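Q: My hope is that you can spare some time for a protein that puzzles me. Underneath my words sits a plain record pairing an amino acid chain with its backbone structure tokens. Those tokens are not coordinates but codes from a learned vocabulary of shapes. Thank you; the sequence and its tokens follow:
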Amino acid sequence: MLRKKAPGTVRLSRNRHPAPVRGEAPLLRRDSKSRSQSGFSLIELVIVLAIMLLASAITVPLIMISVSQYRLRTSAVDLNGLLQRARTRAVRDNRTYAVQTATVTQGRFTYAQVYLDLNGNNILDAGEPMIQVQRNVSLNTSPGTAAIPNATLGFPPQSTTAQVNFNARGTPCVLVNAVCSSWDSAGATPSQVGFVYYLQSTSGASTSWAAVSISPSGRFRSWSYYNNSTWDY
């Protein structure tokens, strides 16, 4: 037998969530779609661009300085190696050899070259040991206040324009009466012969220095000019 509903009773739905109002669902979808398609505002883009420019202004000069210092150190190491090779060759061949300098232009840049003049013709010939310093690095013969003090070197060096030679004993020497002597008698007091090569690197407004010294005993040392105030090796 079927039960009849009592008059005045209302049947409750088991669905506890109210039915959506007509037209509400499309509105919610439109709001969600508009939020997913929204981008950066102009102010946000300007702020990001300003941060990028500031970061570039800080990092780019630091990178350029690091590259410049790397080229300077590499040139000093190469020069040190060539000088040691010249000394060894002089001892092996039992004769005096001169170390010469030259320049070469490649594209828009001019490079300094240092070579061992095996045949004594003052020209870089094929097969002669040589090195070429890095870009923006030069051999400087006028270091001025950047020169290494004699007390730091341990000897008074020859003029930076003097010809560097190695004799058969492997010691640096200068020509005196057609003889390459390890003693320089040109001054008031004879002194043992030693040399210093100065290398200068310029990157924008920044200038860095390096040096390679040859002591009277034939000892080589590479130097760096820290903070443009102190020479160290």
